[in-house]
């Protein structure tokens, strides 16, 4: 048993490191696809949808083939982003939900949570999107994307004909983040 543990444990860690290194290679290919140019005549991609589908397929491969690696957790977030770009809103919501759980406590985890809100909004599930945004604001006031979520929430309030609540959210950004692009954006929305 001791011999098995002496050989097995180091082998396990080595194989996990190798799997993550392999996952990073495939992940890099997905990132290349995301930033590749679209040229209807010469390619490599003839349309944005074709490019996003290829990136989605590549990131999904990382999630499936290298499950459990840190890179697979990151890839799930990019799967969700590409699903959203391809208007696969329900799938995007599910992927963002998993990514927000796997990456919880990180900036990318917060971005995944915002992705859930955006996917719900894209599916016209405004009351759910509003509830998620309100929960995020209540629970994550120190997040780097807090102002962005507040701006999203104000837009959701406007779509739900709740102008006073929208105005309150915009004012909170103007007061809480003076001299920032967030404040400028909030002031522009107030002027409309």
Could you explain how this protein is built, in words?
Helices cover 79% and strands 0% of the residues. The protein has helices at 2-35, 48-65, 70-85, 89-102, 107-122, 126-139, 146-159, 163-176, 181-191. The termini are far apart. The model has no long low-confidence stretch (mean pLDDT 90).
**Helix share bin:** over 70%
Rg over alpha carbons: 20 Å
Number of strands: 0
Strand content: under 5%
Query: If you average the pLDDT, what whole number results?
Result: 90
Order of helices and strands: HHHHHHHHH
Number of helices: 9
Uncertain runs: none
Q: How far is the first residue's CA from the last residue's CA?
A: 72 Å
| Biggest sheet character | none
How would you describe the shape? globular
Class from helix and strand fractions: mainly alpha
Protein traits:
192 residues; mainly alpha; 9 helices; 0% strand
Summarize the structure.
It contains nine helices and no strands.
Topology record:
Layout: H1 2-35, H2 48-65, H3 70-85, H4 89-102, H5 107-122, H6 126-139, H7 146-159, H8 163-176, H9 181-191
